[in-house]
Amino acid sequence: xxxxxxxxxxxxxxxxxxxxxxxxxxxxxxxxxxxxxxxxxxxxxxxxxxxxxxxxxxxxxxxxxxxxxxxxxxxxxxxxxxxxxxxxxxxxxxxxxxxxxxxxxxxxxxxxxxxxxxxxxxxxxxxxxxxxxxxxxxxxxxxxxxxxxxxxxx
Length: 154
Known about the structure:
Helix content is 52%, strand content 10%. Helix 2 packs across helix 3. The chain has two domains: 3-41, no CATH class; 55-154, no CATH class. The chain is mainly alpha-helical. It is elongated. The chain has helices at residues 35-41, 62-71, 86-125, 129-151, and strands at residues 3-4, 13-16, 26-30, 57-58, 84-85. The strands form two sheets. A three-stranded antiparallel β-sheet has the order 1-2-3. Strands 4-5 form a two-stranded antiparallel ribbon.
């Protein structure tokens, strides 16, 4: 447990690291303080697991409304209020980003499996890049030969 012992009251203060916003060392409560005393010491933060100062209320965009419904915060689009706490929108966006990443990862795995299966089927048919290259060169050489014969005078 981390304690900061240099303070005017000479009481140790429990500290924590905030990930987003706030200071690196934010006093949570001195030893022996109650929750109400903690709230009076640090009114901008909502608790020991706070991610910084509260975000202001925001007007959700159309995409935010989709994310709020998709995350389960609101069941219907009509139930979404005009102003929503910024933390709620942030959590809904984060959840939507995670879900979209999982969907894209699943799609990539399925697509790569399909490519492996189609490559094996092409190998069984005898198709290869080397054979396609030979066929292409043969076609180009034949068309060039025909064009040379057509332009040559008899």
